[in-house]
Amino acid sequence: MPNKSDWLLKFITYGVGCITVFLGMAVIIGWHWHLLFIVQISPDWIAMQYNTAICFILGGLSLIALNTSAIKISRVLTFSLLILSGLTALQYFLNHDLGLDRLFIRLFFTTLVHHPGRMALNTSLSFLFIGLILLWFTNPYAVSEKKAEVSINLIIIGFILILLVNLIAAFTMHYGIPNSMKMSFSTQLGFFILSLGLISLTYQNRMGEKRSFIAPILVIFVFLVISLCGWQSLVKSQYDYLNKLLQLKTQSISDYLSVTMQERASSFLRMSYRWMTQNNTLENAWRADATHYIKDQPGYVAIAWADKDYIVRWIVPETGNERMKDFNLMRDPKSRLVIEKSLAQRQLQMSHLVNFIKGDRGIMLLSPLFKKEQFDGLIIGAINTQIMMSHLLHSSLMNDYELKIYSDGQLLYDSENKDFDLHKNWTKRMELLLLGQTWQIELWPSDQLLQQIMGSWLPLGTLLVGIFIALLAGLLIRVLQQVRDHSAKLNDISFELADTNERLNGILEGSTDLIAAMDLNYNFIAFNNAYKEEIYKLLKVNLQKGMNFSVLMEKMTPENREKSFSLWQKALQGQPFTVIESFDDKRFSDLDFEIHFNPICNARGELVGASHTTTNIFYRLQNEKRLRASKKELEQMVLNLEKLNRELGFLEELMSVLQSSDSRDEMIRPISTFIKMILSPTSGVIYFIDSDNGNMLKETYCWGSPISHQTEIMKSDCWALLRGKMHQVARNEKLVVCEHVGADLEQIAVCICHPLYAQGLMFGLIYMEIDVEEESLSNRLIYLFQILAEQISLTLYNINLREELRLQITHDALTGLYNRRFFEEYLEKELLTAERTSSSFSIVLVDIDHFKRINDKYGHVVGDKVLQSVGLELHNQCRKSDVICRWQGKEFLLFLRESSLDDAASKAELMRQSIENLIIETDGERMAEITISIGIAVYPLDGKDLDDLIIHINEALYMAKKQGGNRVSICGEKAKKRKRGGA
Q1: Strands 312-316 and 354-355, how do they pair?
Q2: pLDDT digits (tens, 9 = 90+) for 513-523
Q3: Residue 240 sits in a domain of what CATH number?
């Protein structure tokens, strides 16, 4: 059972996993919602990258899964962590971008990333490290010895040391790849917390075994911290020295270039001064002067003079520059900008990087010429910066350094060293303002200088020596612990040997069983007091150590003697066995024993005797008999419960079927099927109240062979109906018996009447007879019977409710006739039937004449009475196959099935006369006679669809109204007469 320390460690592991997952989720949310303060705590600090957050989530979830013993889930998460971190690390070793950052995120970047992946190299390696440790815990075949587990702890502690050193002194970029080694503060914190969780997981369930390893680990931890800090301090000093050296060199070259370029500018201006001080400058003299400049100052490609129209007139040398002759400088946009600036400031200006006609590139110096405030042209000097800088920056000045110079992002000079990319992170940059232009200087150390300063073995040697001392100190502490542990174990063994005999005697005497042992000669070598007292009770022998078994055999009966000797003889053959034996004694009846025989061997494995442990099992055997009887009862109860379960299943299925029944006839069919399975050993009758006589109940269904069987009973004959609840009478009970049972009760074990009653409505009675005496079976059947009766009552109530709803939907509330909606649907069906069978029918539309006058004179109550009386009279005139509805207001529509025109007309005339003779009284006075107007239409003569028939029959009714009412009008009457006359 886990102790408090294990529970604490388990809680710590859960907490670490949750914190790690929360950290990863917070960073992901920060990336997606652009919450910069979460992703990058400070603008000066490095941001945790998206892939790093995903790895923290995978690591935290894997740790939680391991803590809950969900090994498979943890293994899947760990493999995902190893794949993601491994692919990221692979990007650095292959120097190729696999696109992992683009796979997960395409958002703003808060830091510049100069390496292939978004996750730094040491971060990915750290996750690989953690993934392998997690994978170790998920391996079912992992070594569980102390040494292996301590090794894991050392690895984890070493990992924490790396993080601590990275927090104390950021890793110096010893190999020239600084960005791949950077790690954000939140990432370091996450690794530290995750490592604590791994240590907590390692120490769970085996705290006592591992406490002895804490001291060596702490010693190693301290020495490693000191070693790593010393190593980093030395590397940091090298790094600072090189940075300072590069900074000074960059400043020196910047100052040197500023001075030398000013000297060149001054020298170039002297040519302009000579031009402006002389009245007429001869071409030959000017060419000689320009040639002298080109030779003395390497880098000049050409020197030219352009007149006041900016057209190049003279150029030195002419060879290779023929295309520049007579070229208008203002046509070139770049030259025009520099010229305009030079003229505006009236001083020497230097251009941006330009492409020369010969194909090389460089800069131009432009000096404006003014004589007596009059513009007299330009002196232009074209300089190849690569050649000029190579001359200026001689090898003695640039030894051990490489240089690049840019102007507005364009390369002016390159030392052409191929190891620039390798040492790019050591580059120092500075800006230099010269003659109206800004140059950018980039300086970095050569490989020789970098190896000379950073390649010292002193830091690495310090680290290796520190690691060796740490391991040696840890090993020494561990050896001292083992010596102490061995000494303690020797003391424990001595104490245990001294205490063995006492504990053995305590075990023998503390047992309630009869324990004894004898050697191969049948001499007793050990026994407890319980055995000794039992022997004395049965045989009256005072047992002593060394006594031979034959002494006891003399006191036994022959049967018991033979049985006992054969058992000991078998035991001394060296095989363990167990027997249950009963011994006969007239004085005692509880001599039932369970005897366990076991061989006794010495240290060499040789058999030296045997022992037996005897337990009196008399009461146990008695309990077993009672248990067997109880088992039979339980088995019978299980069978009853299974049967009840099946019957309840049938009852549930019956309930489902009854819920879908729309009429009483429909519900009787499933009841007749299931009631025999639910109430199989019973008989009974179901009665429903007669629709014509509410006090009489008629038999609807009968199952089995009920003794008391009447097809009709009265409500007053049954106490259940009178009381409104179940009435039960057993054969041996002196209770009131229902009249419909009577004297038949003597032949019935139990009879039950249950009213079919729901929501205040009485629907009938269900009567059941039980012909079994068993009380449990009878109670089960009564329970099922009650459920069945209640369900039948609810079903009857639902059927009654649906019938009322159906009546309300299809009938007119005032007259009780069908309403228009039902009639339209009915007529549509009849149209399809008539079309299919080629039959005909007639429809008759009846309208009460002067109905508004009746309402106005007598009121709406009398008007409603007139509508009810006319509707009833029309309904009485119809056949059973005819259908009548209240069409609208004071109109009634009749459907006369298979009725010809003549039949319909005759029927309509009879209706008209019947209404005309109808007597309606109101307040004791007889109303004036009521008349109706009737229109007739015939299918298919007057239309083949409902709309056509209604249109024609309305026309017929209109004709009857137009002619004064109280008459019958036939649709298209004249045309039909002509057709009949022609026939």
Answers
A1: unpaired
A2: 788 888 888 89
A3: 3.30.450.350
